[in-house]
Amino acid sequence: MRNNIVPVGSHELRYEIREIVAVGNALRKMGLEICWENIGDPIQKGEKIPSWIKDTIKKVIDKDSSFAYSPTKGLEKTREYLANLCNKREGVQVTKEDILFFNGIGDAISKIYNYLRREIRVIGPSPGYSTHSSGEAAHAGEDPIMYTLDPNNNWFPDLEDLRHKVHDNQAISGILIINPNNPVGTVYPKSVMEDIVRIAEEFDLFIICDEIYLNITYNGKVSTPLSEVINNVCGISMRGISKELPWPGARCGWIELYNTEKDQVFKEYINTILNAKMLEVCSTTLPQHLIPLLMRDERYNHYNSERNKIYEKKSQLAYDLLKGINGIIVNKTDGAFYMTVVFKDGVLNNRQRLNIHNKAIASYIEKITKNVALDKRFVYYLLGATGICVVPLTGFSCNLHGFRITLLETDDRQFEWIFTTIAKRIEEYIG
Q: Same CATH topology for 10-47+300-430 and 51-296?
């Protein structure tokens, strides 16, 4: 090319959750049946949408307005409904003007990081959801800046680590919270949320809180929304329907804005994001029409309560099958639908293998595991030996070695087989 057209930071755009699909597909062509545990799609794993939800969607489709553009910020009635929901909580109050729709949370994440000044950084959790860490790092053209989540303390944030990094790096202007957390499935106590807000207050930062799993909690845990603890700090909450309904294919998410009027710089930043949305005209209209209709339905809360009971049962079973294995750290999942397993220091090396009977698959796995991270090596061998596709923890901007797996398998026998098999293969692999 006449000039280098590749943007600074392009090397940071990695999404291990889907990259491993290429390996799985290659193995499938060799005759291996793949059990996809790499991505949080309840529908792909067999969850059925209730008929009353489908019937409501069908009725809305019959209205011509469902095919039209929506206002740039989103449908007024839907934004009013969401603002009223927020205002039923304790804490900051919002209006419909503080609600802005996007084509899924991934779209919101892209806009929020891309329209920051290049030199400004947002510190996020490690391990952290790779769409956030990759998007922020690609924008900055630098490695992501992360604060530690401690697997020996139920994956709660190391608040001293967070505070020291904020103190030492003047470029940090925002803190990212993911609660309930993806990939580790932790629900933060209210006190932890308050502590993070206090750090933001001390250093005059804004907060981004990814709350896509806000209502997917169990084992007696309840999420504390950012709006309840934000005080006078400027904040952005990210919400959506892809997990809670669940309707990931709708690509419909929104942000709630807190205390925009209290800081002129933050207000101008939000206006920039809104102007960028205007260039796209609007977000998808149909699911916006449906949000109030579905969430107001008396069956909606019961539906989500029953789903959470299922995840609670699975989280306990998965934990029971893995907790006794020497050489790993595993915490019970309390929110979202993921579990993360960590290998203790020194447990993994580049000589470990799993027995793979198919010679072609064994040869392929041997080839692709050269010079890869030690947890990715285990993940590839697990995939080749069993067909179970999980995601290496180093793919979540993390220096710890481990893997993330979902709790989404709807067939109880298959679910138990998955975790029993993983437990046996871990023991086989690490001896």
A: no
350 within 8 A of 378, measured Cβ to Cβ: no
Domain range 51-296, its CATH number among 3.40.640.10, 3.10.28.10, 3.40.50.2300, 3.40.50.1000: 3.40.640.10
| Angle, CA 204 vertex, CA 203 and CA 207 arms, to 5° | 105
pLDDT digits (tens, 9 = 90+) for 82-94: 999 999 888 899 9
Phi, psi of 265 (to 5 degrees): -65, -45
- Going from N- to C-terminal start, the domains of the chain cover 10-47+300-430, 51-296
Please give the C-alpha separations between residue 224 and each of 91, 228, 274, in angstroms, as whole numbers: 11, 7, 27
Q: Which CATH class, in words, describes the domain spanning 10-47+300-430?
A: alpha beta
pLDDT of residue 4 exceeding 90: no
**Residue 17: which pLDDT band, with cuts at 50, 70 and 90?**
low
Beta carbons within 10 angstroms of residue 168's beta carbon = 8
- Give the span between the Cα atoms of 11 and 139, in whole angstroms: 11
First to last CA, the chain: 51
Determine if the pTM surpasses 0.90.
yes
Residue 117 Rama label (left phi>0; alpha psi -120 to 50; beta): beta
Q: 394, 387, 393: which is closest to 405 by C-alpha?
A: 393
